[in-house]
Amino acid sequence: MLPIVALVGRPNVGKSTLFNRFLRKSRAITHDMPGVTRDRIYGECVMGDVRFDLVDTGGMVLESEATPELSKDFEDEIFEQAREAIEEADGIIFVVDGKEGLTPLDRQAAEYVRKSGKPVFMLINKVDGSEFAPQMTAEFHEMGIEQMPVSAAHGYNLHEVRDYVRRFVLDLGIPEETEEDRVEAGLKLTMLGRPNAGKSSIINAVIGRDRLIVSDVAGTTRDSIDVTFEKKGKRYTFVDTAGVRKRANIQDHLEKISVIRALKNSKRSDVTVLTIDITLGVGRQDKRLIEFLAKEKTPFIVVVNKCDLIPKSETNKALEAFRRELRVIPHVPVVMTSAQKGVGIGKLLPLAETLRRECEIRIGTGALNRALAAVLEKLQPPVVKRRRPKFYYVTQADEPIPTFVFFCNDHTLVKQSYVRYLENQFRKLLGISAAPVNIVFRSSHDNKEWEKARGISSIGKRGPGRERIGGAKTRRHETKYKALKRRRRKEAESEAGKGKAKKGNKGDRH
Length: 510
Known about the structure:
GTP-binding, Rossmann fold, alpha/beta, six-stranded mixed β-sheet, globular, KH_dom-like, GMP Synthetase, Chain A, domain 3, KH_dom-like_a/b, nucleotide-binding, 3 domains
């Protein structure tokens, strides 16, 4: 195990900014408003030859009136998260604000940190230069903790602080992690959904403890929180994200950042768990998220949460109603859960493992072409503009999801309905039931010049005016292209005629 170092302190002293500086990447959301960080955030930090886990925590508030922006319940929950970080940490970095000076909250937090008995040193943040350091650090000496000035925002003294933190971790005396001790990252699952759908509650139910703050107030989770745990000898990482609301309803800049991070995490994870509140049904925002995941070809599971809020006799009817609503994605698994009662929670991880195995499936070219022959024998592609698409062979590309590349004479002749037919047939023949399948067409090399002249890409994309075969846009594009060729031919002929006339005039003069 790597050494664990926790960043603690009262709200709005710059812990998250220091956290990002130490990790050298924007891992935690930073904002001038206090109380942005609520759950504890972990990140692996490397400083020279030293590796350790750094923990960012929410602001410690030991008085209920200290932060009016937060309710008393949130303050208690945030303090509980910071307390757990202090308990599991091997060393503590206590952060204070040099501009505001020593406050009663700082004294109370420092006293609480001392009681832990862990090695601790203090960083006085927001000291923007060496000329300000003596005055801004003077009153902190009375706390009796070894200290260093720093400016996380402007980078003052940051190099010296990194070097000091490196020595601080070495002095903890934690044995270095060997290659045998390292555990594989394992399956990464991202929770996605509307606010207050129960994403954090599901994670707590799966891991069996209250790792994340849960509240009835929508928007409790603001940052993307990684929760790593082991179950039955396997390692998993859940990424809890902020709820995604309708774009027109997002006014706060902080919420915009949270939504962007949530969508990015869904694309980077192995499996995305889309959570829907059963009492609200499949809303417009849920359909937008489904469309986003389907377009990005992201492997995902639909979890219908809070099923304990409806009578048991209506559970099957509700599940069928959800499947009808989600008929545009018939391959995606749908699971009914109740995070509070623990119903259906045990199905999530095995289902995610199955989905990942399907995404990693690799099929030989011979087997694929035998499947293609069977599919074509069953139903030939329809004729378009007196031409029938002709398929030469198919192969699988090296992609994270099953991607099949079909080589044909002209991909623009393949109708979308036949694309769906190919996908469904290949799913049946190859045993791919839940994973997304990507179908790509490539035209033959002989047609490249002809396609380029018509504005068509040979890698499976339609060019200008090719949105619909035989449509008005197609005809307009071809008419314009023919008119352009005629105009250029006439211009060339007129130029040639002028050249001959000039030569004739010169001959007459002589």
